Amino acid sequence: MIVDVRTTRGERLGRVEIDPTARPVRVRPELSDRDLFLDWDGAIDDSGHLRSCVMCDQGRLYRSRTLPQVTPFVILLAFAGAILGLLGYADRPVILALLVVVLVIDIAMLLFGRTRLVCYRCRSLYNRLPIARYHKRWDPGIAERESGSSTSSQPTPESDS
Hints:
Elements: E1 2-6, E2 12-17, E3 26-27, E4 36-37, E5 61-66, H1 71-86, H2 93-112, E6 114-119, E7 125-127, H3 140-148
Antiparallel strand pairs: 1-2, 1-7, 3-4, 5-6, 6-7
Helix pairs in contact: 1-2
């Protein structure tokens, strides 16, 4: 799995690649000058899925969907196609073909979007790993409880000032 490590304040510390079967004890993100110690106790469930955050001492996780970087451009093309349709130009073969191309690109973007896990507490992003069904989408109630709970000292770069 690939983890984009962040502090509890949302600052990016870098990206690390972790093998969950090896369960390394410490990692050093590329933008950090010190090692981070990982807490694997109870973080992996019986089927090998990540249950909780290993960066911030058992923070809860939610699932999030990523979309390709071309998404805003395709949204603009779809709006332009809708305007052309409202103006009555959608009956022309060239315009109709362009609208079909935009539709195909839009469907392809949905198919190629990946699901990742995000920690409520430290906001670290977990990519390229199998995700268990019990991880739900972002919940504001859980987010409020997690942000109000005591934050651990990890990963926070006190010496980065």
